[in-house]
Amino acid sequence: MPADKIAAGGADWVENWAQLVRERDTRPTRAGTNVNAWDERAARFAQMAEDLDPESDPLVTTVARSLRPSDSLLDVGAGAGRYTMPLAPLVGRVTAVEPSAGMRGALERGVAARSLANVTVIPASWQDAAVDSHDVVLVANVIQMIEDVVPFIEKLDATARRACYLFIRVEPREAALAPLWRQVWGSEPLREPNFLDLYNLLFSLGIRPQARLAVRRPEERFADLDAAVAMARATLSLTPDDRRHDERIRSFLEGRLTPQGDGSLAGSFSPQSAIVWWDKA
Ligand SMILES: C[S@@+](CC[C@H](N)C(=O)[O-])C[C@H]1O[C@@H](n2cnc3c(N)ncnc32)[C@H](O)[C@@H]1O
Questions:
Q1: Which of the four, 10, 68, 203, 209, has the lowest number of CB atoms within 10 Å?
Q2: Which of ligand 1's atoms lies nearest the C-alpha of 98?
Q3: How far, in Å, is the centroid of ligand 1 from the Cα of 197?
Q4: Structural domain of residue 103, as residue ranges?
Q5: Residue whose CA is closest, atom 14 of ligand 1?
Q6: Is the C-beta atom of 35 inside 6 A of ligand 1?
């Protein structure tokens, strides 16, 4: 039985969400639900999967606590398998739904390299995927792109037997680079649906989720200033070959990066994220 619905502040949280997604989708190099754009990001996501430490990652450690060895786990929008791969050894089977061929390729290579025999990959969007019930459902860094979010959530809820976990940013990816964004685009960084929008949305649908704010990621390491500039270009929605703003980006970053003993540079540019979950009655 869903709980009573509460629309915080009397707002229409469904319309708020759709409006934020539409605004955000006007960004120049926005990937959104365009799967070809995700193909191009597969290598970066494969690297993030490689770098993830399952002992300290907040999403992995939180979901792992609720998993049992016989469980089935569904990872929606699994990407290159950043969460599928560390969680697969803890359960009986994992289904990874992923519409981008490039991401699936990276995921399948990672699964093979780790000899994980219990992962099935479904090449589809969540809206189109035909999937049976799973004990636990996980959606990381996907829901903020979905304009028609209510059927998306209803399908997640209907597919989960025991619990649903969502991972979403608290603030936009480019928050730490907001001064640069203003200089490059002459406007404020666009908002995207975030943790607070999701929390209120779920209450307005009659779902009362738990939430945990993830500890901010430690400083990121960059091999050199060029690597940090490449990160900033991507975060600023500039194409990799658009070098017009490089000088500005360099001088902004130089003041915010600390040289390390091994010649690399460290700085904090990642936004905070939150884990939002609900147990099925
Ligand atoms: C930011 S990545 C997140 C990947 C992974 N969950 C992670 O956190 O590393 C977003 C992923 O969602 C996928 N995606 C986009 N639209 C989707 C949809 N409608 N249903 C399922 N996945 C979708 C993209 O192809 C991409 O792999």
A1: 10
A2: 22
A3: 19
A4: 8-176+189-217+270-279
A5: 77
A6: yes
**Looking up tokens 């981008």, which residue turns up?**
100
Helix (H, G, I), strand (E, B) or coil at 27: coil
> Per-residue pLDDT averaged across 241-264, rounded?
93
Residue 104 lies in a domain: yes
CA distance linking residue 52 with residue 57, whole number of Å: 7
In a domain, 184, yes or no: no
Q: What is the tally of structural domains in the chain?
A: 1
Question: pLDDT band at 27, cuts 50/70/90?
Answer: low
- Residue-wise pLDDT for 49-72, tens only, equals 998 999 999 999 999 999 999 999
Report the separation in Å between the CA atom of 76 and the middle of ligand 1, taken as the mean of its atom positions: 7
Q: Report the C-alpha gap between 144 and 269 in whole angstroms.
A: 19
Q: Specify whether the CB–CB gap between 236 and 182 falls below 8 A.
A: no
Q: List, in order, residues 6 or more apart from 249 with CB less than 8 Å away.
A: 180, 229, 232, 233, 236
Q: What is the pTM of this model?
A: 0.91
Within 13 Å, how many C-alpha atoms sit on residue 248's CB side? 15
Share of the chain above pLDDT 70, in %: 95
Here the CATH number for the domain that contains residue 95 is 3.40.50.150
The verdict on residue 169 lying in a domain is yes
* Nearest-CA residue for atom 27 of ligand 1: 79
| Segment 110-131, tens digit of pLDDT | 999 999 999 999 999 999 999 9
Q: How many residues does the chain have?
A: 281
The answer to whether position 92 is within a domain reads: yes
